[in-house]
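STRUCTURE:
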């Protein structure tokens, strides 16, 4: 016999699940994120980015700089990077950094 564990998959492309099977002799535990509801409100994201806790705002940090780099996680993660990047780009633009001077890097790790 085997133990089956359902893993969420394809977070950006629908709510698919992937089944992993393990021998019954293994001790398997599934740990879900606690108190991590999905943030879908652009207003909440923008407020958080404009008003960080205990740190200067992104605009303050970027003001007077000539260029910037934004690193985004790869598509295997559930984060919807597009709305976050739009807000970050707007903040950088308002600080005086044009899009031509902003580089985006996809942090692919060991993935394809």
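SEQUENCE:
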């Amino acid at each position: 016999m085997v133990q089956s564990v359902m893993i969420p998959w394809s977070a950006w492309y629908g709510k698919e699940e992937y089944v992993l099977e393990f021998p019954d002799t293994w001790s398997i535990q599934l740990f879900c994120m606690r108190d991590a509801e999905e943030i879908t409100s652009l207003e909440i994201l923008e407020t958080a980015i404009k008003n960080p806790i205990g740190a200067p705002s992104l605009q303050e940090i970027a003001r007077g700089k000539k260029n910037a780099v934004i690193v985004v996680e790869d598509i295997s993660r559930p984060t919807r990077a597009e709305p976050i990047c739009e807000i970050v780009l707007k903040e950088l633009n308002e600080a005086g950094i044009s899009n031509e001077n902003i580089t985006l890097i996809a942090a692919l790790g060991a993935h394809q």
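REMARK: The chain is about 25% helix and 25% strand.
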